[in-house]
Task: structure prediction
Amino acid sequence: MQNDIPVAVIISDNAEKEEDDKLPEHKKIVADWLTEEKRRYGSSLEKREREIIREFKEDPSGVRILIVVDKLLTGFDAPRNTFLYLAKQLRDHNLLQAIARVNRLFDGDEQHEAKVNGFIIDYSKNAKNLRDAMALFSNYDPEDIDRALLNTGEKIAELERIYQQLHGIFNTVRNRKDNEEYIRLLEEDVVKREIFYELVNKFIRQFSACGMIHDFARKFGEKKLARYQRELKKFVELKKIQKIKNAEEVDFSKYKDQIRRILDKYVSSEYVIELSEPLCLSETEAFNEFIEKAENGLSIKSKAEAIAAQTRRTISEQYHKDPEFYGKFSKKIEDLITQLKAARQEDLKALLDTAHDFQTQVQNYEDSDIPGELKGRKVYHPFYRSIVSIFSHYSVTSENICLVVTSLYDIIEKNKIVDWAGNIEVQRKVNLEMEDYLFDVVKEQKSIPLTIEEIESIMSSFWNLAVRNR
Result:
């Protein structure tokens, strides 16, 4: 470990080709080290190498710097590998193989940051060798090599271009300190919003890439760098606010390290963690806490729209479990969204309260349509709602409907076995028992004249709801 960065070494084992007493001093040191590693890992070093390579490729907390001597030029693929330090001259095929180690793009994931380009730090003047290798092995344009050799000015120009594109989206915003103006503009133009989202990602990646160039800060200038840092912070926050407001998933975790490097001392590490951590949209308390934060600058209207969007998302995710309940609230939310679009300022507070009420009812799975007998037993609610309209035709009391619901539910429960939902025999047995109950008890004993179609509909509804709510 060096400064808390895990480092590993993989060296070709050629020591055995020479007698120990004939080895130069530095090779003796290497030979002794290899002997010790063999003792630790067994007679072969393959197990050790496999584990180190796995860590380097897959484990963000594992090996970050891998020092290699005469190894891994072929058959090694680690897309997140960003830097290659060349400490000796390579030629022809070996040089091309080495460069191939870092020339793959990587979009990142929840643990690995995104990568827009690789960096080759050359201590051995390999640029000429690269031209020779390209000429030897392929038809190429010499300008391709010039483009591959990093030009700080071109990288800065690309960063500035993305910066201008981002600001161009908001050129109609009058008050640059008012988040609501930015939010309203993005809300009204879906295409512009998607372009903004992608540009923010590009801005992070390009800014991070520039920051890795040794003379970037000097050429860019301290004041300009500070301004770009402030703007990056603002745009990342705005993207998060806008996505959460629309109940869209937002996750900056794969950019966390890049954001931390770019902002450096400008913000705390706690801020970067909070910014990059995804917000679980189904956690209503955390969602509401986020939209209520004064620094996020959401107006009453935007808060109501955010709650409506989050509730609509919950309805969409849960709809299959109780179509009657969620269908009812889906219509209420759509009506609320329509009202918000045309609402006067004085009506917004009442609409926000309504949004909160709908959110609470959907979140708690509560409505006033369930009779007292089943009120506290939510497992029965979707089944009750699925058949109440059928029995209402026959003036059946809520007490009798509740009895039918619990009886049919119990039939399903007593027949449940491992993997019951996909078991045709279980479904057949349940249907026979429900059919007997509906004909013998409900139709004959209770004199409720259900039709065959209604009986089949009840059986189908109960089975399907049981499967969806398992």
